[in-house]
Amino acid sequence: MNNLLVLSSDKIKTLVFAAAFTALSVLAPMAAHYFGGPAAGRAFLPMHFFVLVAGLLLGWRAGLTVGVLTPLISFSVSGMPLFAMLPFITIELAAYGFFAGLLRDSVKNVWLALVGAMVLGRVVLWLGIALLPTKLIAGAYVINAVKTGWMGMALQILLVPMVVVVIQKFLKND
């Protein structure tokens, strides 16, 4: 009986929110592609949004988990991202979630943690492309991703901190 894992209410909340953020991260690109076509995903970066929220709100472990699971589940359900891009997007999203949580714990400022995670996520993406076997050119790919995704990045900087603050207030009232 002592060997049973007992989950605290905080751990249960974390698991529920991590599952919800993973589901939202899978559904958001589907909605973006449905309404705006494939280019909408590259422009608005809908998969990134809830991964960043998960890291900032739930910490690096949950952020990393949501970042890894999101592209894998999305691929298995929708075929997106393309198989050739799956390792790189998984690495990138895992880095976003990890660094968002890690930086939020250390700098305590949601905007600094967010921007830091976004920058470090791109650096890790660049490293992944540079080190893994691919025909992609790391620098060119990352520069193009930033040029194409600037609207999504701007929306993340504007909206992610607000979502985090609102959810934190909701959780404190719980």
Draw up the topology in text.
Layout: H1 9-36, H2 38-44, H3 46-58, H4 60-78, H5 86-107, H6 110-131, H7 138-148, H8 150-173
Structural features, described:
The chain is mainly alpha-helical and 174 residues long. It has a single domain, classed as Arp2/3 complex 21 kDa subunit ARPC3, CATH 1.10.1760.20. It has helices spanning 9-36, 38-44, 46-58, 60-78, 86-107, 110-131, 138-148, 150-173. α1 packs antiparallel against α3 (46-58), α5 packs antiparallel against α6 and α6 (110-131) packs antiparallel against α7 (138-148). The chain is globular. It starts with 8 loop residues before the first helix and ends with a helix.
Quick take:
By secondary structure, the chain is mainly α. Helices cover 84% and strands 0% of the residues. It has a single domain, classed as Arp2/3 complex 21 kDa subunit ARPC3 (Orthogonal Bundle).
